[in-house]
Write a structure and sequence with these properties.
The complex is a heterotrimer.
Chain A lengths: L26 E7 L7 E7 L3 H12 L7 E6 L39
Antiparallel strand pairs in A: 1-2, 1-3
Chain B lengths: L20 H11 L12 H26 L8 H26 L5 H9 L16 H22 L5 H29 L3 H20 L11 H6 L7 H19 L9 E3 L4 E3 L5 H11 L3 H14 L1 H21 L1
Antiparallel strand pairs in B: 1-2
Helix pairs in contact in B: 2-3, 3-6, 5-6, 5-7, 5-9
Chain C lengths: L4 H21 L8 H29 L5 H7 L9 H4 L5 H22 L5 H29 L3 H14 L11 H8 L10 H14 L22 H10 L1 H5 L6
Classes of the chains: A alpha+beta, B mainly alpha, C mainly alpha.
Organism (chain A): Sulfitobacter profundi
InterPro entries (chain A): PaaB, PaaB_sf
Pfam family, one (chain A): PaaB
């Protein structure tokens, strides 16, 4: 496909905005309470075929499998909102993947900010 | 950076007085540094513009997995393999956060994916360049992630709430990405003669494409003004590009590598580096589909999508069966 | 290569993780759905981590100055000790997940038994790894069930995968001199002792997946002993080892 304008991909007509096709996995909002947390906080969303899978996917995507976290998954369409307040993001890196921490790499000071 | 081929409304920016009350309240909130949330009123152009930009940003993360994924199976140590794999995994995660942010605007991930696969939506031009040696893994982390960070840090203050929050999470993860790239380069330049040559060669091939990441020169960038007013775009292309050069040149000097630009010179008067612009003709060719890897990148994504269809459908069918059985049992 | 049975045993554990981790990492960027891409990468990352532990210990036990990287990147096919199952190509996603499930079910049982090993270091590695593999097995069995009992097409593909890979299951339960020595020393279980539990778990999962276990119990062998690997491993090593082999005096 050398020119992006010419479409070889035979996708069928997109459904109107906001309506999921029947072959699409629904969207789930994810809430996580960390090991030392007091309540569940909204961390984001993901797609899954059902609630059970949503929780498992959340473990992979949002906790990188930290143990001892509690996960809630709610189908996005089930949430009623007045003026929505999306909760702050919670990110907890897996503790044994130390290279994820910027301090793992010894970047000399002369190089400047990185 | 992700706003390639986004058309403006074509009408020019309205002043506050020219706006209807709803739009004026909307613009005033943005001017005051407030956030627009999914269910708030927003002009159609703002919504469309955001869907396009966030979507293309997400597509860039996903397609961006490919040039680095190219080297996972050939990583030279177990540690490097794990680090590279973690980085590419992060990119999938970033794509996911961004698609979810875009979905709050009334479009689904699958629709955006179809638009990517058909060529209707774009992704960052840099990912149409090939990764040819292990040193490219260093160059990509150092330069490409470096450029992305330059663009992404200010976007943490963008006006649309979900996009801003996705950017905060992404920025936390991005720092390790650039550092691991630079770490690879340091190892290479201190290594064997072959490794030093590899490192220089990688810089030679990635320098100008990295500069292109910031988009066309401001004077050729017609549609920025509205995006800036809406705080969807936080800095001009040239501002960011200049900042990138200023930060990167000393880093290259530290590595003992030569940036492939003979005109590069520190300007005492301006306090910035003077540097050559990339070949814009090449840039527009890449946007049109004539970059070294456009065909392969899109083919790879199409293949993954097509070959994965039975999996997505199968798991969905199973979920529905489970639901029916549960209901029947009650 | 040394004939110390403990060294052999550690290479077996490490090479399984190395080869399977490599295979799974091949999916990065091309999985059927984003969430799956991330999940598979987690599995691969775990396995690479386990590789470093097992092969690291192997190198220490051997005492010839070889570390995990040396063992991973500088041995040839005949010195590898992974079971044949894990070197099989990815095929389609169904084949990958079936291979994963059939291996995970054995892997968890083996690691659980190793927690009681008389060797403290092996016990520690096993305990950490077992936590990760519990998760691997949960995921792979869920996927096998989901795709087996999904659409007609997904069912057909999973059955085909099962039929293709079943002949590689038996090798995981074959005992030889190395296994006998490990059992005598209280270090590791007799492989055959894990079979009954395995059959139970696999049977339950396949039933839930509406898949039929093949009748023929024939088992290919030659992987864990190194006597005869499949042609696939050689090709895999040309990818994996190439940089280190091409630039032997470089550090990365």
């Amino acid at each position: 496909m050398s020119s992006p304008e010419s479409s070889e991909y035979d996708g069928t007509e997109a459904a109107p905005h906001g309506k999921a096709r029947t072959t699409e996995w629904p969207l789930w909002e994810i809430f996580i309470r960390g090991q030392h947390g007091l309540s569940h906080r909204h961390v984001g969303s993901l797609h899954a075929a059902d609630a059970e899978m949503a929780i498992k996917n959340a473990r992979d995507v949002y906790t990188r499998r930290n143990e001892g976290v509690s996960i809630w998954a709610v189908e996005a369409s089930a949430i009623a909102a007045s003026s929505p307040e999306e909760k702050g993001a919670l990110y907890e890196p897996a503790n044994d993947k130390v290279y994820r921490h910027p301090t793992f790499f010894d970047i000399p000071d002369e190089v400047g900010a990185m | 950076m992700y706003a390639q081929m986004i058309k403006s409304t074509g009408k020019g920016i309205k002043s506050l007085d020219e706006m209807e009350p709803e739009e004026r309240a909307f613009q005033e909130r943005i001017d005051a540094g407030g956030k627009i949330e999914p269910k708030d009123w927003m002009p159609d152009g703002y919504r469309k513009n955001l869907i396009r930009q966030i979507g293309q940003h997400a597509h860039s993360e996903i397609v961006g997995q490919l040039p680095e994924g190219n080297w996972i199976t050939r990583a030279p140590t177990l540690e490097r393999k794990a680090i590279l794999l973690a980085k590419v995994q992060d990119e999938a995660g970033h794509g996911l956060y961004l698609y979810c942010a875009a979905e709050t605007l009334g479009v689904t991930r699958d629709q955006m994916t179809r638009d990517l696969l058909s060529g209707k939506m774009k992704y960052s031009s840099i990912f149409n360049y090939p990764t040819l040696t292990w040193a490219d893994m260093g160059a990509v982390g150092w330069l490409v992630d470096g450029a992305a960070i330059m663009n992404q840090v200010p976007l943490q203050r963008t006006s649309y709430g979900p996009y801003a929050r996705a950017m905060v999470r992404i920025c936390k993860e991005e720092s390790f990405h650039q550092r691991q790239g630079f770490d690879i380069m340091m190892k290479m330049v201190k290594g064997t003669e072959a490794q030093r040559k590899m490192a220089q060669d990688a810089l030679n091939r990635f320098w100008f494409p990295a500069l292109m990441m910031f988009g066309p020169s401001d004077k050729d960038s017609v549609h920025s003004a509205q995006s800036m007013a809406w705080k969807i775009k936080m800095n001009t292309n040239d501002e960011l590009r200049r900042k990138f050069v200023d930060e990167t040149v000393p880093q290259a000097e530290y590595l003992g590598l030569t940036i492939p630009d003979e005109t590069l010179k520190f300007n005492e008067e301006t306090g910035h580096y003077d540097f050559a612009e990339p070949d814009w003709e090449e840039f527009f060719q890449v946007l049109k589909g004539n970059g070294p890897c456009n065909t392969e990148r899109l083919a790879a994504r199409n293949r993954a999508w097509d070959e994965g269809r039975w999996v997505r459908e199968g798991l969905l069918a199973h979920a529905e069966k489970k639901r029916s059985r549960q209901m029947a049992a009650e | 290569m040394s004939t110390d049975p403990k060294f052999e045993f550690l290479c077996r554990m490490g090479d399984n993780a190395l080869v399977l981790g490599h295979r799974v990492s091949e999916w990065c960027g091309t999985a059927p759905v984003l969430e799956e891409d991330i999940a598979l990468a987690n599995v691969a990352l775990d396995l690479i981590g386990q590789t470093q532990l097992w092969l690291g210990m192997a190198g220490e036990v051997e005492g010839a100055g070889r570390d995990a990287d040396k063992l991973a990147f500088h041995r040839d096919v005949w010195d590898f000790r992974n079971v044949l199952l894990v070197e099989q190509p990815n095929g389609d996603f169904g084949q990958t997940m079936m291979r994963q499930f059939l291996f995970d079910a054995w892997h968890l049982a083996q690691l659980t038994a190793l927690i009681d090993s008389s060797d403290k270091e092996i016990s520690a590695i096993a305990e950490k790894s077992a936590k990760e593999v519990t998760y691997h097995l949960e995921r792979s069995s869920d996927t096998v069930i989901g795709l087996g009992d999904g659409t007609e097409e997904s069912h057909r593909r999973m059955q085909a995968a099962l039929d293709l890979l079943w002949p590689y299951v038996g090798e995981m339960f074959l005992g030889d001199d190395v296994d006998a020595a490990m059992k005598d020393a209280g270090i590791a279980p007799d492989p055959a002792s894990l079979r009954a539990g395995y059959d139970q778990l696999v049977g339950d999962t396949l039933a839930a997946a509406t898949l039929s276990k093949p009748e023929d119990d024939f088992a290919h062998r030659g992987g864990k002993s190194g006597a005869r690997h499949s042609e696939h491993l050689g090709h895999m090593l040309t990818q994996m080892q190439w940089l280190q082999r091409a630039y032997p005096d470089a550090t990365w």
